[in-house]
């Protein structure tokens, strides 16, 4: 990576509904509260990361204009010109577009297509303006996700504690391991989400994940919490919606783990 100060972390899982966007948004907010400068990149056409900080009207407006990620990647533009300030200190966003559904086609026509995002981020890395860049990847394993991985230092894989939560995860790990020649991105850890301890799925999920060699499972995990849904409905981080809720404390602990990563 051009600038060793900035750590780039992508959130990825080829299975939808894993809590990927929620985890990315709330970790970013907790890092910003800790005084870290954070840039979020919404890499998913579903716009969920953008909706975590702006209301639907604003998000759709950004998606319909040309000041979003799709047009930047399509034109190989400098992404520093596409940054939007969120309502929160230390926290900025590059918004997505529903047109990201076409990004695979756009990349297919480009030379060195796997590194377009990395090149578009070059001046941001050189500026050393951010401590962290967090990228919300779509639930696919195509060229665009390869772009995100080639840009990233670390990968966080959110996994839902449910009967289907682990479905396809082995393929996901195989895909990441197969990227070794193209990227130095390391799996920082697996984050277990949507935990309901009245059921046995959390224990089963953790036991299976911990059976994988060389895969770290975060000590932090995220419970099912209605405050998360209400916060999403209000387009705010859960800590803004309700400071003392359980999930707020859990995302705070996750941020501590991420900031301490490497000192274990």
Structure in a nutshell:
With 264 residues, the protein is α/β, with parallel strands linked by helices. 39% of the residues lie in helices and 17% in strands. It has helices spanning 20-33, 48-51, 56-64, 69-74, 103-108, 116-120, 122-127, 143-151, 169-177, 201-210, 226-233, 238-241, 246-259; strands at 7-11, 38-42, 84-85, 91-94, 132-136, 154-160, 186-195, 217-223.
Task: Report on the architecture of this protein.
The chain is α/β, with parallel strands linked by helices. It has one domain: P-loop containing nucleotide triphosphate hydrolases (Rossmann fold), CATH 3.40.50. 39% of the residues lie in helices and 17% in strands. It contains 13 helices and 8 strands. It has an 8-stranded mixed beta sheet with strand order 3-4-2-5-1-6-7-8, sandwiched between helices. The longest helix is centred in the first third of the chain and has 14 residues, at 20-33. The two termini are 22 Å apart. The model has no long low-confidence stretch (mean pLDDT 92).
